[in-house]
Structures
1.
Amino acid sequence: MSPRNQAGDRFDEREVVSRSITIDPQTGLENFVRPPLALIVRRAARWRCPNCGRGRLFARGFQVLQRCPHCSLSYFPESGYYLGAMIINYGVTATLVVLIFLLSLLFPDLTPWTMNTKILLWIAFAIALSLLMMRHSYSFWLGLDFWITPRQPKSPTSFC
Ligand SMILES: [Zn+2]
């Protein structure tokens, strides 16, 4: 009987592929091979595991799975891991809001809104943009970190 991953799907252990780690047949030691950045970016854009490219990152909503359902790569290698994703999210959101605001100054103001209404609308826009970017930030942060420091997934049978 084949094992089940965290999502409850059955998987074949022979399908588990690790592109980042190879074993040197002569020494028996692990070789860490950095995957191509373009491959990592494609996987991050599709919200997939940076190691195997098949496992999804999110359960539902903004909840990140604990590990890859296919290769069991941990998506939480340490506590506070996604602080970097939040920094990316803040930076991209702030940059976009400021750029759009500066571009809007080029056009005449035809709205009847007061300054307070405009400020509230800009805040609402920034919050919505931040929520829209959250999954992408998490995915790209995980991919970037994996590209910089490739790590080996734990055995698929070691989690329950
Ligand atoms: Zn994976």
2.
Amino acid sequence: MAARGQNISLVFPRVSLLPLGIGSSRKWLCRACMPSPSRTQKIMEGLSSGIEAGGAGGASSYAALKRVDVQWLQMRTQKSVTGPKPEVAVRNTGRCLEIASEPKVYDVIVCGGTLGIFVAAALSLKGFDVAVIEKGKLQGRVQDWNISRKELDELVKSGLLSYEDLQNVVSTEFNPNRCGFKGSLEVWVEDILNLGVSPFKLVEVIKTKFLKMGGVILEGSAVSKLKVFDDAVELLLDNNKTLYSRLVIDAMGNFSPIVQQIRCGQKPDGICLVVGTCARGFQKNSTSDILYSTHPSIPLGESNIQFFWEAFPAGSGPKDRTTYLFSYMDVNPQCPSLEEMLELYWDLLPEYQDVELNDLEILRVLFGIFPTYRSRHEDSLMFSLPFFFFNN
Ligand SMILES: Cc1cc2nc3c(=O)[nH]c(=O)nc-3n(C[C@H](O)[C@H](O)[C@H](O)COP(=O)(O)OP(=O)(O)OC[C@H]3O[C@@H](n4cnc5c(N)ncnc54)[C@H](O)[C@@H]3O)c2cc1C
């Protein structure tokens, strides 16, 4: 099931600018200096391709990295609102069910299946007639999700999972968990984000339960338009199918077309960038870092950036560890690309985890972007539309 990387050699010329004193005025890496192919490209293209899931962090190929980097470049270089406002959800007066082309009306349709399937199953359990629409295949990623036991127990309390189901999806458990700044304050806590769960198995279990309860899943169908009438919502899919529902829940993630409409193509105010790997070969692998900083702000690209680490034992083996380098920043054209951040990650990881890159077998490379927006007046207007919950 899991995507396993080949044991690739990580001996590459360190042609990016190397750290010559943290916090010095020297740029760590300048865009023009990044060699082609980059170290990141060589590493990623040497890995065997695994299952790619539709949800965030579900793709780990170099091509997928470039796709997200193009999206991120457009985001940070756009001026503000560009082009006409996307019209995905529109308000129509009157009623639609009397003249509906399709007699079936769902109580709830959940758009987006990664976390959406959990909401859908919980509503099904309460007796509602529910359908899920998922653009790709409805499956969880291979890479663990980290979560606290308390959060996961909610799924048992709600009746969606049994404790036996939980046993089968929890792949690893570890304590203690650290937060801190190297050389300064360090706080060790217990039971915070200390479980690794297999999203692939967890989503599969919930999906099976949902289907058994009579839930309907439409995979390989993207929602392209929603018309909100007084009595129901008419949903148009990209395969020309039309569905009707009394309530629609948007669970399409950060890049939901409904969120794009609410934001009117607005440039995000902030961004969280994350890069990392799941790799094999860590001798010290019993504790985790929830949030740990090893350096003061570092010059990268044209910006000074404060980086943080996360590190967790991974469920795939005793020496397998997931390590993420992430940062929060204002959005401007000088922000680094994900590939630039990965170049920095390869440079900093050995010191942070006391390992040699050459001693690690990279299983998969991980990355993602999380845009953030300040609230605006228009948002509250959109939220007041009937039949909708919005996820962002
Ligand atoms: C590298 C990385 C590591 C992470 N690690 C963790 C972790 O350890 N623990 C944790 O809790 N979270 C983690 N996250 C956060 C992660 O975003 C969430 O756990 C989870 O993926 C969010 O699920 P979601 O369903 O809200 O959104 P998404 O995962 O973005 O899923 C949205 C779904 O909607 C579908 N969709 C999109 N558009 C349409 C459309 N038009 N029609 C129909 N379907 C559509 C997509 O195909 C997708 O399946 C991580 C994220 C990244 C990037």
